[in-house]
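Ticket #150: bound-state structure for copper (II) ion.
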Amino acid sequence: MASHSFATTLPVVKKIALAAVAVVALAAPGPASAAPKLTVTITHVMRGCHAWDLGHGPMRAKMSLTVKRGTLVKLVNNDVMPHRLVPTGGPTLAVKGANMNKMAASASATFRRPGVYRFKTVYGPFFPWARSMAAEIKWMNVLHLTIRVK
Ligand SMILES: [Cu+2]
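RESOLUTION: The complex was predicted; output attached.
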């Protein structure tokens, strides 16, 4: 009967599900590579040309974030012009790729010391393919980013 066969197959389905969970757990990276990560994108916007973008929530020219010690922060330039990341305050920090001078170029840093880190970007001229946008954009935001590390 149908009800009998359902009762006998259910435990088998549960076992398969548990086996799948075990495989995922084994494949997960160990603690050494489990450092927290955060990506912030510089996105092209019509009002002000560019803004910080977390991928959710409002895009802002001035953004403040709080991260845990040891967080790897990656900044990706998806604007229509180069951006160079410049520290303006806080503990010294090694930044890789601070000169984000091509589309999708990224800067990254691991924030190991607690403190308040401040940055701005210095933007360059429009990329050649985006020059026609210059006429439509009335003003340019100056991007400021504050990262608090607990
Ligand atoms: Cu821009």
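RESOLUTION NOTES: The longest strand covers residues 37-45.
TICKET STATUS: resolved
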